[in-house]
Every structure is written in structure tokens, then in C-alpha cells.
Specification:
Butyryl-CoA Dehydrogenase, subunit A, domain 3; 69% helix
Length: 156
């Protein structure tokens, strides 16, 4: 039988794989930077509401923060470090950011959201899966609490 790693080392291999999945490969920073730029363009065309302006600014800052966090993780990974439980921070951030970005676009479009080219509406529907796949965000928060913050395991 083919074995990845050493016999009995499956859990470590599985955790390494999921850490990389959550931390580096699911969402490209370029995707979010481009979407945030499109959102800013949409705001310039339609925006007047200061609250929406602040949400667009948050989206631009969030895209850059995600890019920098991903670069930091990629640098650590390239240096031979394991990302580990910190990948859960990344996964929770991008999955919730993706929803907020698309909700902001839909709010800017208003009732035109259904008649627009569909890109924002389709992106929104797709974004709703983010907090579920690759481990739900509730599970990711448990990992963050227990493994990164050292909090005791909660009742299940």
C-alpha cells in the first residue's frame, strides 16, 4: 500500500494538508484586491451614502491586509515553517471578508443588483459557502481559541 509520510503519522499529514488548504490555497489575494478595486469603482459611480463609503474603504483595507497576511504565511512556509493552527485565522478572515465585500456591492447596487451583469450577485451566493467548507468557521474559532489562545476546550 502507498503511504504518505511514515506509518502512524497520518494525523500530522492531514493537519498539514488542511492547514495549507485553509491558509494559502483557497483564496488568492489578487482575487480580493481586484474585487475591492471593482467595488471602489462601483462606489465612485453610485455612492453617496457615507456608511457605504466606509464599508468600501473597509473592503480596500481588508483586501490589502489579506494580501499581507498571505505573503507572511507564504514566506514562513518557504522558510520551512508549518503554518498550523494560524491557518484558521486566515480562513475565518477571508470567508467573512468575501461575504462583506459582496454585501457592500449589492447594497450599492440596490434594486439594480438583480438586473446588473450578475457578477456581484453570483459572487455573493458563492461567498456564502466560504464559512462552511474547509471546516466551518465555528470549528475554526474553536481551533483558534484552543490552539492559539490556549483557552480550555468548551463543552460540546
Amino acid at each position: 500500500a502507498d503511504v504518505i509520510g511514515a506509518p502512524g503519522d497520518g494525523w500530522r499529514i492531514a493537519m498539514s494538508t488542511t492547514g495549507n488548504e485553509r491558509g494559502l490555497t483557497l483564496r488568492s489575494p489578487g482575487r480580493f484586491l481586484a474585487a475591492a478595486d471593482r467595488l471602489a469603482g462601483l462606489w465612485r459611480e453610485r455612492g453617496a451614502d457615507p456608511a457605504l463609503r466606509d464599508r468600501v474603504a473597509d473592503a480596500l483595507v481588508g483586501a490589502r491586509a489579506y494580501q499581507l497576511f498571505t505573503y507572511a504565511n507564504a514566506s514562513r512556509f518557504a522558510a520551512g515553517e508549518q503554518i498550523g493552527a494560524e491557518s484558521s485565522l486566515n480562513k475565518v478572515f477571508w470567508s467573512e471578508y468575501d461575504i462583506a465585500l459582496h454585501e457592500t456591492a449589492l447594497d450599492l447596487l440596490g434594486q439594480d443588483a438583480e438586473r446588473a451583469d450578475g457578477e456581484w450577485a453570483e459572487g455573493y451566493v458563492f461567498s456564502l459557502a466560504g464559512p462552511i467548507y474547509a471546516g466551518t468557521n465555528e470549528i475554526q474559532r474553536d481551533i483558534i481559541a484552543e490552539r492559539l489562545l490556549g483557552l480550555p476546550k468548551g463543552r460540546r
